[in-house]
Write a structure and sequence with these properties.
single chain, alpha/beta, 2-enoyl-CoA Hydratase, Chain A, domain 1, six-stranded mixed β-sheet, four-stranded mixed β-sheet, 10 strands, globular
Length: 264
């Protein structure tokens, strides 16, 4: 089996490319989750990485679950408890890993993002869409539910009412509707997608890397904690930030009216 996930680094930016275009880059029935986990661990440990871009090869970003895997799971000899365990040991590890990754992730959505493919975009911090992109929370169309955390992820991105509409109808929306619904932050011409993603990544990477990582962590924690708890965590993070070499460099650069130079 060919490698599912391509890993490329340009300076401080890593691009992860899902690379099974003939199957529309599915997230099940292959090694996708295991390869994602290896890549995420590698990124987390590498201080030179400041931003990640996630995209897909071919006409699809990701079709989500593999239909042949669904047929296998529906077979009479496969027990429900076994399927539950497969989800726990399989795709459910992906949202947890991306949630806990301190490095910002940009989803460059090049085409169809369906079911778990849509949910994968919601696991990222920022979403940029090609004008050819399509999105659907399509699980009910196949008589199943979002087993990958979509019921938690999607409402936090576009709000409960829009998420309910997408989840209950399984309707496909285009890139402009996704922009209007705040599912993506911008729509660009298809041929300019990776250029736009890299330009955004470079603007993020130009900032103090540890401060960016801590900022992402605070935003993630803010999704499920009380304000007073987040304020206490922010004070602790700020105390650490004030003592870093990158803070001293940023202040010096500001005073000297020059770009800062941050070490890896």
């Amino acid at each position: 089996m060919n490698t599912f996930l391509l890993y490329e680094q340009r300076g401080h930016v890593v691009t992860l490319t899902m690379n099974q275009p003939e199957r529309r880059n599915p997230l099940t029935g292959n090694t996708a989750v295991d390869e994602f986990l290896v890549a995420i661990e590698r990124i987390q440990r590498d201080s030179s990485v400041r931003v990640v871009i996630l995209t897909g090869n071919g006409p699809s970003f990701s079709a989500g679950g593999d239909i042949n895997e669904m047929i296998r799971q529906a077979a009479p000899d496969v027990e429900g408890l076994a399927i539950r365990d497969e989800y726990r040991r399989g795709i459910q590890r992906l949202p947890l890993a991306l949630f806990n990754l301190d490095v910002p992730v940009i989803a460059a959505v090049n085409g169809h993002a369906m079911g778990a493919g849509l949910d994968l975009t919601c696991m990222c911090d920022i979403r940029i869409a090609s004008e050819k992109a399509k999105f659907a929370e399509s699980f009910v169309k196949l008589g199943i539910v979002a087993g990958d955390g979509g019921a938690w992820l999607l409402p936090r991105v576009i709000g409960l009412a829009r998420a309910a509409e997408m989840s209950f109808t399984a309707d496909v929306i285009d890139a402009q509707t996704a922009l209007a619904w705040n599912l993506v932050s911008r729509v660009v011409p298809h041929d300019e997608l990776l250029t736009a993603a890299n330009e955004l990544a470079d603007r993020i990477a130009a900032n103090a890397p540890q401060a960016v990582r801590m900022t992402k962590r605070l935003m993630r924690e803010g999704l499920h904690t009380r304000l007073d708890t987040l304020l206490e965590l922010s004070a602790g993070f700020q105390a650490l930030a004030h003592k870093t070499a990158e803070h001293r460099e940023a202040v010096s650069a500001f005073k000297e009216k020059r770009p800062p130079r941050f070490a890896d």
